[in-house]
Amino acid sequence: MLRYTLSRLPTAVLTCLVASLGIFWLVQLLPGSPVAMVLGEQATPEAVAALEAEAGLDRPLVVQYFDWIGGLLTGDLGVSYVSRVPIGDLIGPAVGATLELALASLLLTILMGFALGITGVVARRRPAAVAYRLFSALGFGVPEYVVGVMLVFVFAVTLRVLPAGGRTPILEDPGAGFQQLLLPAIALSVHSAVVVGRFLETALNQQLDEEYLDTARAKGASRRRVLWRHALPNALPSVVTVIGLRIGHLLGGVVVIETIFAWPGLGTVLVNAVSARDYLLVQDLVLISVVVFIAVQVASDLAHAALDPRVRLEV
């Protein structure tokens, strides 16, 4: 397992490096000086030059890149061009909010995904199967922001049983925090749950058609035991990989869902940074998102290898 882990690390590090170069290059292609945009059209060239020198934007691009990467590696995210506040202080409070929403959405994705996948296998030609197909079609085809708006309209505007937005840390007030967390977590997880459910259904059906399960049936094993004891454990490795990929989708959907529900997380900070043209803050947030996504993929690959020894033996 250690050998497999070490074999995955160089690729992950190289991918992060290439992503950082691409992000830095794309930001440099944006028209105009970010400092000039912050100061406004009436700013004098002297004022622009002074602030560029203070921010280090007058140095060669190679030096700027290595200063940026070096700062990130040491925990120094730089100073916002707009607010002149350390970026770490800006995103620090938002990390907990996004982590809370992402973990709740991931939990719902796994629970709903497994429930949907197993329902698709055991409820063939039953009313439950019809409901499963209908929910899967809607969940797969309707965008997350539409799901979010529909949830707000039904549960916050019409029924008035849940709040339409805002956040109370769930550890401070579990009741209010759970109510405010429920709608955005559902909106963010529905599409991913359907994907996980469909993939699990396919994987289970493939396992149920394998010859080794004919032996289990011949020995008198019930359908439930065949499903839970034999088919599900063998279907898990590939499903874990899909869940890892869906975590990346959840991270991407956070931006839209946090905006809809006024959730004060990293997605909201990113939207505000783009609106204010705070390019260094945008640069930091995008790279952090890429690094987290790559780390999640490596973790899912390691989990896959832990569940399926054949994967790590190929290295």
Automatic annotation (TrEMBL):
Cross-referenced SUPFAM superfamilies: MetI-like
Membrane topology annotation: Multi-pass membrane protein
Transmembrane segment boundaries: 12-30, 101-122, 134-161, 181-200, 226-245, 251-273, 285-307
Gene3D superfamilies attached to this UniProt entry: MetI-like
Cellular localisation: Cell membrane
Domain ABC transmembrane type-1: 95-300
Keyword Cytoplasm: no
A Pfam match: BPD_transp_1_N
Family: Belongs to the binding-protein-dependent transport system permease family.
UniProt cross-references to PANTHER family, sorted A to Z: DIPEPTIDE TRANSPORT SYSTEM PERMEASE PROTEIN DPPB-RELATED
Name of the protein in its database record: ABC transporter permease
Species per Swiss-Prot/TrEMBL record: Jiangella asiatica
